[in-house]
Protein 1
Amino acid sequence: MSETTMTPVQDAEAPAPNVVTMSMQQALNLALDEVLGENPKAVIFGEDCGRLGGVFRITDGLQAKHGEDRVFDTPLAESGILGMSVGLAMAGFHPIPEVQFDGFAYPAINQIVCQIGRMNYRSRGTLPMPITLRVPSFGGIRAPEHHGESLEALFAHVPGLKVVSPSTPNDAYHLLKYAAGRPDPVIFMEPKSRYWQKGPVEFAAGNPTGARVAKEGRHLTLVAWGAMVSRCLQVAELAAEDGIDVEVLDLRWLKPIDAEALARSVGKTRRAVVVHEAPLTSGLGAEVAQLITQSCFDTLKAPVERVTGFDVPYPSGDLEDEYIPNIDRILFGIQRVLEYRRD
Amino acid sequence: MTELTFPLPDLGEGLIEATVLEWLVEPGQQVERNQAIVELETSKSALELPSPQAGKVVRIHGAPGDTVNVGEPLIVFEVPDDTAGIVGTVPKDEAPKRRVRLSAVLDED
């Protein structure tokens, strides 16, 4: 792994090396920088996105480089941020708005559900909504209430929206560039607890569609996305100590879900546990379990287990450790699947 | 590195100023989030103010006995660029801990 570090916004003259180690913050920043450079219709805006460069520094330096008409601050009004995105998209722009924290997507739900999700449908394809909504998502940073949520099931349920969440700097770079190039609205859920971890970004080799096998295994598949992927990789290492060879499938796209990848993985391992931070009831784990059951019913060794957050409001930072699936809860889920026997 | 200024917050009950009793930190010192940084007195009470964030103290405003108005700079922190302005705490990557062990007889049919 290269130890090369880089400034977030690249010098346009410098030759780009093929693999660079950087944080997810830097990978996202670089992707946005390139999108602005390549697509004159792309505009970035949100609370503190301009001068400050975002509370997570994702838009750092972009206003200075690309100008105040391409990267700018908005009032503290999420429905306005998304409403403006609708208007800009109707006028031919490619908005990349930011909702500063997931919990503040709620005030914008009307614009997201009633306008962004359906404008293309309503206009018979004459008014596509090429909007990439960046949402710093999930918990893990001990933030106050409303600053950690897991809204993927809410968004995935809305017809017309696509939903994606990267778990590595490499995926963050490639998925964001891909999302920003789509004609459809994409909810881009950034796992904020993973912003600072570094990893290699391979500029030439990006596969931005479908799920990704994060680790191969043969006894059981852990299905996860966003911040839970790294935890599941830790669990896989621990399970190996006990002789259990766990495969970790990073779903990445939460809508549409890569059903073929689920079928391939669980078709091989015959056991599956799906892990998410969101509450259990009506969470995306149910959708994943159904897709697995549909394709693998005949060979499944046990019902698909779900290890999830609890059916309570996403708690503030002090209670996070009690809420987010931890290593032991995931191991218990695996054990339940391993122990299952048909009568 | 980035400097972040923390102004005297509204201490409640409509008070518009506070008097510095004693600083519990000094410039150059690294402080943690929620660490007590200063003792203040208002017309209602004396209180210890917790630090809103982790960082290195660059400057403090107001000597003991001085009055600081709500909204005026109280303390200036220096923080790494990648954490400036963040709500919450950058998570530390820790070695995984476990209490649960797996046991299974795997029939490899």
Protein 2
Amino acid sequence: MIKLKNLLKGHTGIMRIAYIMVIMLSLVTIMAFALHDDHKPVEHEKKIVVVKDSVASVAAFKKVYRVLMSPRCMNCHPSGDIPLQGDDSHLHTMNPQRGVEGKGVFAMKCANCHQPTNTPGKNTPPGNPNWHLPPANMKMVFQGRTPYQLAKQLVNPKQNGNKDIKKLIEHADDGLVLAGWNPGEGRTLPPMSHAEFKKAWITWLTTGAYAPKNNLTFFQKTT
Amino acid sequence: MISLNINDQNYNIDADPEMPLLWAIRDLVGLTGTKFGCGVAQCGACVVHLNGEAVRSCVTKVSRAQNQKILTIEGLSKNNDHPLQLAWNEADVPQCGYCHSGQIMSAAVLLREKPDPTDEDIDQAMSGNICRCGTYPRIRKAIHMAAEITRKGGMAK
Amino acid sequence: MSTPQVSRRNFLRTAGLGSAGLFLGLYLPDAAVAMVMSEEEAVAADVYTELTAWILIKPSGQITLVSHRAEMGQGVYHSIAQIIAEELEVDLASVDIQFAQGNEKKYGSQLTGGSSTIRGAYKNLLKLSASARQVLIMAAAAKWSVPVTECYAASGHVIHKPSDKKFHYGELVVDASKLQAPKDVALKPRSAYKLIGKPLHRKDTPLKTNGQAIFGIDKRIPGMVFAAVERNPRLRGKIKSFDDTEARKVPGVTNVIKIAMGVYDMDREGVAVIATSTWAALQGKKALKIEWDDSGFEHVNTPEIYRKQREVLKTEEGRLLKTQGDPNGIINRSKDILDVVYETPYQSHATMEPLNCIGHHRGDTVEIWGPVQAPNWIQDYISKKMGIAFDKVIVNMTFLGGGFGRKALMDYPHEALVISKAIGLPVQVIWAREDDITQGPFRPGISYRCQGVIENNEVSAVKFRTAGQNNDHFRSGDNGKANRSTSEGWLKPYFETIKNISFADVLFQTPVPTMFWRSVYASTNGFAYESFVNELAHKAGKDPLAFRRQYLKEERAAKLIDKIEEVSGWRNKGKTKGFGIAITECFGTTVAQVVKVSKKKGEKLKIDQVWAVVDCGWYVNPDIIHAQIEGAIVMGLGAATIHEITFKDGLVEQRNFYDYKMPRLTDIPPIEIHIMENDSDAGGIGEPGLPPFAPALTEAIFDLTGKRIRKLPFDMASI
């Protein structure tokens, strides 16, 4: 534990550089609009620069992992085919099933209860227009995954829905991801703001998406 | 004014768009077969079909249902002869009967998508509907019977 | 289901039939309500003639039978008609059924509780139906001028055998209603029944598969408005102040008033929001800001309740209900006493149809429409509470979306009338599920101290003491006596073989209002007493089923034990583990159950099967019996393993089905049911299937794992 901490301390300089690069990268993207013949703005192919930095990457993933394993994210990334529920991540009452597309089955489809928006009140179904679990062929399980396993899985195109780094970065702003920060009355928020999470997510990806070794200290909750 | 199409009939109602579909159907349209059980999507007594899906009308805002196709228990069949209704009668499923509009509407989606469901399919489809009288064994039995009725050419919708 | 117009001009004169007071349906109207229509007018208008209180016939031949009791799932709506149709000789398919209004003079008690409808009414119903048939035959014979003996009744007609001439009942009813039935109308022997004893389809089933059945919540009265009430969450407190500013802003809300609803002897304060739709009323209720006055009563905590119950059971002897021999003497001198405490939880009735009622206060007259189990109690209560003449309290029953005892209370009809009186309109009060779960009244949570001595492998003494709230105390205060239901559920034949035994009730009170809950005290007594019987059997080194055979020597009990042994496979189970048995009796019916459990490594404990054998004597409809026992087992499963009501600082901790969870389809084991055939008097059916389930289940778990469960509910996943 001490070793890891020291390592992180020693590399804060590099991490800063990495962040600056990310910010610059996004500036480049914004400026890269050009007017084409049809006068519609078109975004050029983003070039994402990855600056490998295992220490910064692992440090960022530590934050990412804390968010992904929070009930707001993990509850819809269960190890089985039944979503989880509540801050204690118990099996969803009435056992709704994932189904092929992740949208439930028969009379038990997610959207039958989960409306386009949160239903007012405590213990009511949270909502989102696209409420679903990962599909059956791409389950993207969080529950029970070690940081190492989860990190590897997140960047594996065969397991992440064929997402490259660009799509992964975009995914941080996915409607359902954002729903984690608007969970409905009475539910705890993920352990950091969405902005902070997104920053960590991008940092992790753009510093090489290193998978932390399965070190027990990683699981210790930090506040 | 909100326009609702319920059981192939159009209704224009003066409702707050936030009003749950359940209360619009019961109090404003006047179809009381759909029941209020919990108000929080726990019990399934309020299930109606919205574009064919078994939504819980107690948490579905009337604005979501506007100009969509809504089917309630009253419209499932003209003569109480949907295979599920025939089977429910044959097996005398209901006791107090209060939850069974929702039970039947849930089962109707199951049968449409899986005309010959297994016990596991029934588990997966029907675990969202509570019956306090405990008619569950007969619900299971009647769904199998309804599949059989359909197979033998009973009326199917 | 509108109330048919009735000609009250003519009635079946059957005076002298049966003993006065027992034979009902002889209601004669006073002059004030007698019909003004002439006979000819009545025939022309095709209005009903009330041949007896239960049988209405139109000149056109249409027949309506009356259900004087509440239909809450237990099937009386159908069963009453199935009985009447048998002796009246009508086709069940062609008759209509209507609910009676509250009228005790006419129908006797209409309290639908204690599984009493069929067992209480069947002899009377058979007799009055046969009498009605007889006067119809007599009327036909007179019309034809033939001997009565040449005529018989079938399918709603009287037929003259020699000539094959026939009249339908409608053509005879006016004449028949003027005749006096002979004193001794012969009743059919059971072997001649065409309807009774058959698994006929329920007549209410079709109404319940297409949304047609009108439950209380579905009832609509011209001009009615809707109301929802925020009541003091601590069940007794008052209102200090409230702010309705936001509530009144909700579109549709028309009024907000402070009210008090009578619950037994107390008045519970609340704020009623009146609106043009149910939803507006519920929204307005949520927007209220209320400061409660919770002074003057104890704020209970569940752990405290059970700690105190244990405490009083340690030191107090309580009030004796029954005793024989010298159990105390034997226990005092014995060195090896089985001495254990069982705990049972508070429970909510949680009917699927939340409480609701329409009330219309018209000044001198009040009327209610709703899902009610006890019309006469409502009449009595409202009459006294609101100063209305008893006969001016009109109670109309609808279908009930479950009752289980909760809907026998008068609080919610009273509340509807209080609001109606204040606003001058008919109003439907609706309880949200959260109100239903948090407000009670609840089944009382009861602790049981059970002591027993086994000497030479036989029971020498048993002593039971209970500590829990007595429902009666809420009705009429502490009468100084033991709870008269302290031994409910316990099988009487044990008194023949256990010579030293006592039942006592240690007074225990809290401010929490309590109420009958399906199978009432048997629902908790059964768990304690039958678990203890199992414990005694093990201590005596006997098989629990064999123990019962030895100690229950009465003939019906013995046959019941043989049957459950046979059907459950107990006889041939060999060394297979996981079998548990329990037998309880309540409301005239004895039910034996065997539960079989198993557990695979890493998996949750599984209930493989439940077998039930029912001895209810004479019965009407075996399929309804099966349904009731199935349902009771499912309800028992929930109460034993899934839900309970707990209190913290006087507040109920559960609110809705997310924390007062219900068994679901996936939780239900296969259930096999058998009915004993005998000619004993009819017993009840709605409730007796519940009590034996929990003790049979916990015994099965003991058999499998050696773990004895003495506290309900328990989590099956923890086994």
